[in-house]
Amino acid sequence: MKTVSILVLLTIVSVPQVLSAAGRLTLSSPVMQAGGILPLQYSCDGEGVSPPIKWRNAPKNAASFVVIMHHNAGPSDRHFYWTLYNIPGTVNAIDTGQSVGEHGANSVNRNNQYAPPCSKGPGLKSYTISLYALSSTLNFSGSGAVTEPLLLKAMEGLLMDSAELTVN
Questions:
Q1: Fewest CB atoms within 10 Å of the CB: 69, 70, 71, 93?
Q2: What's 97-122 look like in SS3?
Q3: Are 113 and 119 in contact (CB under 8 A)?
Q4: Which domain CATH number covers 45?
Q5: 50-87 core/surface letters (b: 16 or more CB in 10 A; e: else)
Q6: What is the per-residue DSSP string for 81-97?
Q7: Beta-bridge mates of residue 55
Q8: How does pLDDT run across 2-19, given as a tens digit for each residue?
Q9: pTM
Q10: pLDDT digits (tens, 9 = 90+) for 23-54
Q11: Would 10 be classed as within a structural domain?
């Protein structure tokens, strides 16, 4: 009975510490708000440059960051437009059109660059920019194109915190 009580007490004491340490990272943009509209400049109908983003409250010992911008077109149809990885842990913003770290392949043309989304067709489209703080940099030497699935697999066990910004 003492062992069970001690385990329950340890669980109660440790859970708030875990919860308070996670979820502090925030992601924002000076040109768009969560739930707002993706400005034309960042789409295929405009200049087609990547949007500026910035983040706060990153884990102090984050070694690197990953940025992925995606759109879920259907249950098994995920498009990714922007994959950046090995962004130095000292960086807290990316300016319009700026390339920081290394580009992974997008799903539009498989090039290692930002692919501006094209909101063609009926209905409102949502685009999510995800930021991941990692405890290490990623190594893909000799692995060919770094796609979103490969990137997500490599991040396993390294995630310290994450944040998202979704626009339409």
A1: 93
A2: CCCCCEECCCCCCCCCCCCCCCCCCC
A3: no
A4: 3.90.280.10
A5: bbbbebeebbeebbbbbbbbbbeeeeeeebbbbbbbbb
A6: EEEEEEEETT--EE-TT
A7: 27
A8: 443 333 333 333 222 223
A9: 0.83
A10: 599 999 999 999 999 999 999 999 999 999 99
A11: no
What CA–CA distance (Å, rounded) separates 23 from 97? 28
Residue numbers of the domain that contains 163: 24-167
- DSSP state string for 16-76: HHHHHHSS--EEE-SS--TTSPPPGGGSTTTT-PPPPEEEES--TT--EEEEEEEEEEETT
* Domain count across the chain: 1
Residue 44 corresponds to which tokens in the numbers above? 């295929």
Q: Is residue 14 one of the residues assigned to a domain? A: no
Closest CA to 117 of 166, 151, 163, 69: 69
Flag whether 3 is in a domain: no
127-134 and 64-74 beta bridge pairing? antiparallel
* Burial class (CB within 10 angstroms; exposed 0-12, middle 13-18, buried 19+) of 15: exposed
Domain assignment of residue 131, yes or no: yes
Q: Pairing state of beta strands 77-88 and 26-28?
A: unpaired
Collapsing DSSP to helix, strand or coil, 5 comes out as helix
